[in-house]
Amino acid sequence: MHDIQPRIQGVWPGLRELYEGIEASTIGHLYEAGYVHGLQPLARPIRLLGNAVTVKLPAVDGSAIRPALIASQPGDVLVIEMAAGDQHRACWGELRTLAAMKKQLAGVVIAGCVTDVRALSALGFPVFSRAVSALTTRALDSGGAVNVPVTIAGVQVRPGDLVVGDDDGLFILDPASALEIGKQAHAKQRDEAARRQQLR
Asked: Which residues of 40-61 are buried (b: 16+ CB within 10 A; e: fewer)?
């Protein structure tokens, strides 16, 4: 049985709009907490911005991803924690990408691997993962949870957190603090744009 908790809309439209043009490296100039080490974009260029829907997978079993996809809404980002020792397995491939695109999700973050990499690259869906693997999870229905706190590369992610990623990296931010961080980042980018013009 899966533990399916209600979806949380933590990211409001104004917060999403604030972050539309903010680069991950700008956040990294101001803030360290929430930076996800060790996960890389499957392809570049990439832009990922949305509301976290979390998934916690048990060993070998990827079946909890299906109810997470069903529960998700347009603009959400699936954030998937793999079981300890399972990070070498792929829980995400072409069919799940197609399902996510049909739901108009903003992307997926996986503390594990992906497969079907040629198809995923062609589809252009934003993916952050640890690596690529032909060894996959199974549909065992042995458990798993949706919309519970998870840990991705040492960063705790709560349902409704703000997920921000691009070519340079990935941040998971608490919406309550993300507003002030976003204002500072926006001001920094505005100042940098002015300096850039002066240097040309």
From this structure: ebbbeebebbbbbbbbbbbebb
